[in-house]
Design brief:
It contains 5 helices and 6 strands. By secondary structure, the chain is α/β, with parallel strands linked by helices. It has one domain: Severin (3-Layer(aba) Sandwich). A 6-stranded mixed sheet has the order 1-3-2-4-5-6, sandwiched between helices. The longest helix is centred in the C-terminal third of the chain and has 17 residues. It holds the Pfam family Cofilin_ADF. This is Cofilin. Keywords: Actin-binding. GO terms for molecular function: actin binding.
Length: 148
């Protein structure tokens, strides 16, 4: 099920700038989106943060967010069959706290598909219901699993 939610051209352009390392969002690690009356908006305050720990600390406890995360990591040398070196992956994180009511969770799930369909080049998706689930090491391990 997909809701009739609007993803603006501004969001798509901002995401592409971050992904390609060009324009206003070339240095950004995140684009944080929130739902607002049938449309998706950029959460300007959270988008300006510099690392995942800062973002996790400031995520709202009772509201969901969609996070486009430009994850950079060093490929571990023990990974058999894969070359070492720096990797970057675009990760789509759905932040839906456990405190959110069931109706809102269904809305988030349906909207998630709409948003992901508009943003090309996502390497993986990740769902988090509590702040403890948002750990960079877990995200890197999941990315490495997809690379293999």
């Amino acid at each position: 099920m997909m809701l009739n939610t609007q993803v603006s051209d501004e969001i798509i352009q901002s995401y592409e700038e971050m992904r390609l390392g060009k324009g206003k969002f070339k240095e950004s690690k995140f684009i944080v989106l929130h739902m607002e009356e049938g449309s998706i908006q950029i959460d300007q305050n959270l988008t300006r943060l510099q690392n995942l720990d800062e973002l996790v600390d400031k995520l709202p406890a009772k509201n969901s967010r969609f996070i486009c995360y430009h994850l950079s990591f060093e490929m571990p040398s023990q990974t058999s069959g894969l070359r070492e070196g720096k990797r970057t992956k675009m990760v789509f994180i759905t932040w839906c706290p456990n405190e959110v009511n069931v109706k809102e969770k269904f809305k988030v799930a349906a909207t998630c598909k709409t948003v992901k369909a508009k943003l090309n080049g996502m390497s993986m998706s990740y769902y988090a219901g509590c702040k403890g689930e948002l750990d960079e090491k877990q995200l890197i391990e999941k990315c490495i699993t997809f690379i293999k």
